[in-house]
Amino acid sequence: MEHPSSPTPPVSRRQALKGVASGFGYLAFAGLAHQAAARDAAAKGTHFAARAKRVIFLCMNGGPSHVDTFDYKPALNKQSGGASPVGRERGGANLLGSPFKFAQHGESGLWVSEVFPELARRADDLCVVRSMHTDLPNHSQAFMQMHTGSFQFVRPSVGAWTLYGIGTNQIPGFYAKLLGKDQEPGPPLKNIGSDVPRDVQRAQLDLVRDLNRHKLERDVHHPEIEGAIASFELAFRMQAEVPEVLELRSEPASVLEEYGVGPGLPTDRFGRQCILARRLVEAGVRFVEITAPVGWDHHFLLKDELAKSAEATDRPAAALLTDLKRRGLLKDTLVVWAGEFGRTPYAQGGLGRDHNNKGYTIWMAGGGVKGGLSYGATDEFGYQAVEKPVHVHDWHATVLHLLGLDHKRLTFNYGGRDFRLTDVYGNVVKEILA
Questions:
Q1: pLDDT in tens, 125-143
Q2: Contact 238/285 with Cβ under 8 angstroms?
């Protein structure tokens, strides 16, 4: 006896997306849901009281030579030209003393090279870490590890982790700008405008919002749809708010001069980016990264080329510290100056230096670190960190700590595993905390 077939239950949109076209529609929807979940997590707040609310990262790509900038090595100068007792595993050549003079500055007496006359005047604001080290001496891997904690895999950057940990407000919380040597000048943020009149665009968004609200009322809970609505609204607000933040014409002439902004000046491009960084953090951006317009990869002609790199960045970086302090922002803004590694104390090609991941220098200022401090040390020639070594994982852990985040608790589950910026490593360098 045949039984009448049961009525076919209605197919939901989710089921349709799974079944139609081999599920490709659902794949896209799942991606949207994943992004929304990440945004939801971003607003969970800090683990403890933060010393810094925001970070400005001055990225000195290429590997600045620490022994020519902030790590004074009189023994290296005395033995310049002699056979290098370090680095022989990499074919070490003769030692190369620094062609630049060093002097002590500020009440702290920090040693700073003559290539940084303006930063030297801010010596008592600088927390100089002279014992940094990382895993590999290759640009691409070291640069990736400096940003993500890993040199092997695609991972979120420290800026993304910051945003994930402490959230953002009306505008995007993470801004990064690459300044290539041959890059043509252009708008700080592309595709921010719309060809559709604002009132029409607002009406379109209202229609989409109302349709989705109706669906939310019917289905009760759909975090992925809520996340999509939030992203549309954020993009709409950005069109009105971001252009004003990125517009420098409202800056007084005295400020532009302070940062070295002006036609034909070597400081013009980096100066503009430093002003932009200050404006962005004032507007609520959590993490801003700007990159040096002239790289620091000085394998040859060290004296001339390093001087050019320093000249392009010294005045703007010092002005940024001065400006932030004047506006009351430096105390809770962490400013970082760092490259992916340092350079060798022995010569390459007679007048340059090779890559060195075993020891290098960075500095930080404001945001809860001690000013006028020199922390750690490399050996007498500057080859390897020997006193209080700080690995890039330790630096990441410290930056997150200053932002009120425990690097061991700031995790994101992906593929069944909890990931973190520091992987299974990293210790907060508490001695540098104010």
A1: 999 999 999 999 999 999 9
A2: no
